[in-house]
Amino acid sequence: MSPFDVNDFLPTEAARYERRITQLQSRGFYTTSIEDTVNAASENVASRDVRSFVIYGEPQSGKTEMMIALTARLLDEGAKIIVVLMNDSVQLLEQNLERFLRSGLDPAPKKFNEILDPSIDPKIGTWVIFAKKNAADLGKLIDKLGRTKARTVIDDEADYATPNSKINQHEKTRINELVGRLLGRDGTYIGVTATPARLDLNNTFENENEHWVDFPTHPLYTGQETFFPTTAKGLKLPFKLELLPDQGDAPRYLRAALFHFLISVAHLNTQVNEAAENYSMLVHTSGKKVDHSKDYKQIMTLLGALKDRQHPRYANYLEAVHALAETRFPGSEKEITQYVVDHINQSDVVVMNSNAQRNASLYERATSPAALFTIAIGGNIVSRGVTFENLLSMFFTRDVKHKIQQDTYIQRARMFGTRGGYLKYFELHIPKHLYLDWQKCFVFHQLALSFIRAGKGSPIWLEDARIAAVAGASIDKAAVALDSGEMSWEMFPYEREIDAIAGEDGDPSARLAALAELVGDDALPDHVLAFIAQFNFGPASIAIHRTTTLGSDYGTPQERTEIRRRKGFIATNALEKDRFPEAIHHIKVFRNEAGRARVFYKYTPEAGSIRFLKNLKSHGK
User: Fold this and answer.
1) 557: part of which helix (H) or strand (E)?
2) Staple 383 to which of 223, 370, 412, 443, CB 3.0 to 4.6 Å?
3) Count of CB atoms within 10 A of residue 547's CB?
4) Which is nearest to 146 in space by CA: 115, 174, 171, 188?
């Protein structure tokens, strides 16, 4: 028998991150996006000493798997306490905690209340702790962690609840204050979100937007370009889009959407799938529980009629199912209708709101459909962080009559994700105006992020009369510059070539590019050119006006020197509507007699002007 020596049993060097990547690859996961993101985040923390930054990626693009790998890497590199913050939802916390646990992470993650026992000392060992963004929970966790140092906070859905919406009142919201206390003086904040505008414009924990990390999508991802292609590309969609009237919510629209869902499931399980699969339909209502109840009753009535041959509407509804099946899948209508008749009892309708929020099994039934025909009904609670497996249909019951926020509606794209296997059978039923606004949300969002991805510095966030970038209260007004209506930028030396460009005929896009190259980015920024290109409806939509010289009789001496005046330069008559009747993008150079010039831009669509928001504050070291 060999002698025992405790020194023979030293812990082996941790390799959590490599193990996790190997596990994912063995299961066929595409890991390049995860590896690139984790490497960049690790470089921020280990090499650049960046203490607050954001990782941004598309909705439902696999951010949870990335966070597991990131946690493993941070532990390998010496992190002792990592707190993963989730929205104030028991189901979301449980769902994500289970995924972290099943990954085999070392140490095994714990819910915050599992470490509150006085016998547990968080200063000993390493910890991965899950907590909701809930004031009571965070307060208890902060008390327990006491004087521990160098905590790392990974904030999932970071733009929700964490930013300080009282920033212009020189106060802090409760969650913002508590997360700040959790970080302490030497903590590291890593916000993870699909919609980072609020974190940027709010200067949340002075995150350094020049060190933000992009989490690219994987090859099987279906997202904006699939469901909301840009205006320039038109609406050549690989799924079924059913545009509803902008006003009213007649029951027939929900009935048609439900019947379409039933026949699509029937077709997939009789003609496509080797074995039957369960699918879900999401009915997205307003945030009012009374609307959830109304839609629930309507769906239950429809399903009840299809289950009861004695019901007075049974024959009419079954005939409607048959007619839709004949239109959508001609030749298979009889088999599909029979499948619906035989399996309609395998339906499950789940209301997802705060009344049901603590029922984990109910939540799981909806997100991972336990019944063949699963219908989930919800509003705000299903709009963020919830992944619906085998989601086959989405129905939006009502248009919004007020200004919508980009972050809210981008997060509502629950159909994004890995939908390729059944994408052509997916259906989106939505009011037309809401779809177009939603599409514009994504255009504005992607234009903003493109500047970071291209290495052009801080993002420029866009909004218009219908679409707000973020909630106004969250914008740090002391640090954010806003261009709206008529815009102008830096002055530059006037050159005669400008007159030649303005006076030429030919493609205005090419002439605009020539003008931009001549005057430079400071005088005509790239983000404006990108916006014009995105909303280019043909040559007639762009007007490049002739140069105007400000003579000695024009305005005040200061206005002529600075080429600025409060009421602007491009008045209605300067738009030259007789010459450019269809133009919505107006570009005009004004020069003074001292040889200086400035470019002015005005956007004049029927919907109103555009606004560009940029955070001018730098937190870099």
Assistant:
1) helix 557-562
2) 412
3) 18
4) 115
Q: How far apart are CA 265 and CA 272, in angstroms?
A: 10
Q: Are strands 127-132 and 347-352 parallel, antiparallel or unpaired?
A: unpaired
Question: Are 595 and 493 a contacting pair, CB within 8 Å?
Answer: yes
Amino acid at 475: I
Q: Is the pLDDT of residue 52 over 70?
A: yes
Q: Are 54 and 196 in contact (CB under 8 A)?
A: yes
How far apart CA 142 and CA 442 sit, in angstroms, is: 37
User: Residue 597 pairs with which residues in a beta bridge?
Assistant: 492, 591
- pLDDT (0 to 100) of residue 232: 45
* 373 touches 307 (CB < 8 A): no
User: Please, are residues 540 and 505 in contact by the beta-carbon 8 Å criterion?
Assistant: no
Q: Residues 442-474: pLDDT tens digits?
A: 888 888 888 777 776 778 898 988 889 999 999
Instruction: Report the candidate in 180, 41, 167, 194 with the shortest Cα–Cα distance to residue 617.
Output: 167
Alpha helices by DSSP H, 308-431? 314-328, 333-343, 360-367, 406-411
CA 55 to chain centre: 12
Instruction: Please list, in sequence order, all residues whose beta carbon lies within 8 angstroms of the beta carbon of residue 151, skipping any fewer than 6 positions away.
Output: 81, 82, 83, 145, 182, 183, 184, 187, 188
Q: What is the token pair recorded at 87?
A: 């929205």
> Which amino acid is residue 493, in one-letter code?
P
Residue 352 has which token pair?
């997802």
Specify whether the CB–CB gap between 222 and 417 falls below 8 A: yes
Query: What is the DSSP code (8-state) at residue 222?
Result: B
Q: Can you read off the two tokens belonging to residue 236?
A: 């050549």
Q: In whole angstroms, what separates CA 439 from the centre of its chain?
A: 12
Peptide bond into 107 cis (omega under 30): yes
For helices 526-534 and 432-453, give the axis angle rounded to 10 degrees: 150
Cα separation, 531 vs 515, in Å, equals 16
Residue 173 in contact with residue 166, Cβ under 8 Å? yes
Res. 434 pLDDT band, cuts 50 70 90? confident
Residue 416 three-state SS: coil
Q: State how far the Cα of 394 lies from the Cα of 257, in Å rounded to an integer.
A: 8
Residue 322: closest CA among 310, 313, 331? 331
In contact, 349 and 22? CB cutoff 8 Å: no
Tokens matching residue 491: 């002055």
Q: What is the mean pLDDT of residues 388-398?
A: 88
Neighbours of 251 (CB within 10 A): 12
Distance CA 554, CA 560 (A): 7
- Strand order of the β-sheet with 460-463 is 460-463, 611-615, 480-484
CA distance 571 to 600: 12
Strand arrangement, sheet containing 391-396: 240-244, 427-431, 391-396, 279-284, 373-378, 347-352
- Tell me the β-bridge partners of 480: 615
Question: Three-state SS for 171?
Answer: coil
279 and 268 in contact (C-beta within 8 Å)?
yes
Q: Compute CA distances 295 → 283, 354, 377, whole Å.
A: 8, 16, 8
In this prediction the pTM is 0.86
Give the Cα-Cα-Cα angle 67, 380, 468 (nearest 5 degrees): 85
Kind of pairing between the strands at 542-544 and 110-111: unpaired
Would you state the structure tokens that stand for residue 287, as one six-digit string? Answer: 């945030």
The residue ranges of DSSP E strands in 245-290, in sequence order, are 279-284
How many other CB atoms sit within 10 Å of the CB of residue 6? 6
Distance of CA 529 to the CA centre of its chain: 23
